[in-house]
Design a protein that fits this description.
Blueprint (H helix, E strand, L loop, with lengths): L1 H23 L3 H9 L23 H10 L13 H14 L2 H17 L20 E2 L4 H14 L12 H18 L2 E2 L2 E2 L5 E2 L17 E2 L2 H10 L6 H17 L4 E7 L7 E7 L7 E2 L1 E2 L8 E2 L5 E2 L7 H5 L4 E2 L3 H15 L2
Antiparallel strand pairs: 1-4, 2-3, 5-9, 6-7, 8-12, 10-11
Helix pairs in contact: 4-5, 6-7, 8-9, 9-11
């Protein structure tokens, strides 16, 4: 019996030592995220104007430089910024039990709550709001990424159950406000609901221009993420159902069949290749990034902001440097929406 008790004590001691060692362990990427976090609580997608990796051992001199840059007001939600760090840090906290990781993630959530407009939308950047950065931004799923984080906080799921419970109610309220913003920004044409633009004026909630080649339009890309989020609601209202059904109907109406975008050998072009729209009867349906409001005609732009109706009419740089077409809605139409209809009906 004494030997048994001794073994139990030894085992508990080993477990305690392992837990203590694990609690003191560090994660390189998480530690670097602490360095880059802005005073506002969010993160920037760039370091000295360029994309960067957290998986780097920074020298002391670079850490000092990063600390200077972290004083900037350029935190944003573009290209998964802030959302990416919050999700990584809570996972790192659950593994290493470093309270600094959790505190940083919670400050990131507070940043998202502070940055929300009264109309429910989010700017791309906060507190800096120069140019189009102040617009209500769906572009590249910026607001949808924020909503998925806050919804997980509100529902205490997907690792975000570890955050401070005081963040639950504000997160739920923020999600509710943004859903109303989504419903308010669904574009109507001749009184009929269609889908969504990439970005909206923060004051009027009217479709707006961002970069020169990102004109007011209905988007075949961002619309998909918005619909998927609306379908994730646990008890959708009639207004949400109407929005989903109308958005899906619009996607069905504007899908493009019998064509694909291909990189074609083109003598004289940079790298000897160019992107072209080519006929292919076996290609899956695809969607244009931009559809003209009122006509549903796909359009394209160079950096001069002049609308063209064929990808062949714009210059090589923009033709090959932007996602003008994609199969974005295929899974939604083939799988996710039919399953949602089975559950909730039309």
């Amino acid at each position: 019996m004494q030997s048994y008790k001794k073994n139990i004590v030894v085992a508990l001691g080993i477990a305690a030592c392992l837990f203590a060692a694990n609690a003191q362990a560090q994660d390189l990427q998480a530690d670097n995220m602490l360095l880059f976090q802005r005073g506002s609580g969010g993160w920037s997608k760039q370091y000295h104007g360029k994309a960067f990796s957290y998986n780097v051992q920074f020298s002391d001199s670079l850490k000092a430089d990063i600390a200077i840059e972290a004083k900037h007001d350029d935190a944003n939600i573009d290209n998964e910024s802030t959302k990416k760090e919050i999700r990584y840090l809570v996972k790192a906290y659950k593994q290493y039990h470093n309270p600094k990781y959790l505190a940083a993630a919670e400050n990131g959530i507070r940043f998202l709550l502070k940055a929300q407009y009264a109309n429910g939308g989010w700017p791309q950047y906060y507190p800096e709001k120069a140019l189009y950065r102040a617009q209500v931004t769906y572009n590249d799923n910026a607001m949808i990424n924020v909503l998925n984080v806050l919804q997980d906080v509100a529902l205490r799921q997907n690792d975000l159950e570890v955050v401070d419970k005081s963040l639950v109610a504000p997160s739920a309220q923020a999600v509710k406000k943004c859903i109303q913003c989504i419903l308010n920004t669904q574009i109507k044409v001749n009184g009929k609901l269609t889908a969504w633009c990439q970005q909206y004026d923060q004051n009027t909630l009217q479709p707006a221009k961002a970069r020169a080649y990102e004109l007011p339009s209905i988007s075949g890309s961002e619309t998909v993420g918005i619909i998927e989020f609306l379908m994730s609601q646990p008890n959708p209202s009639k207004q949400i159902k109407d929005a989903v059904n109308a958005g899906v109907e619009w996607l069905q109406t504007v899908k493009i069949t019998g064509y694909k975008v291909a990189s074609v050998t083109t003598p004289g072009a940079p790298n000897g290749r160019d992107r072209q729209l080519v006929a292919d009867s076996s290609a899956p349906p695809m969607w244009a990034r931009y559809y003209e409001i009122g006509t549903n005609k796909p359009f394209f732009c160079d950096r001069d902001g002049i609308k063209k109706y064929s990808i062949a009419e714009i210059g090589y740089e923009r033709r090959n440097g932007y996602a003008w077409y994609g199969t974005w809605a295929q899974r939604l139409l083939d799988k996710d929406y039919p399953e949602w209809v089975k559950k909730w009906g039309k």
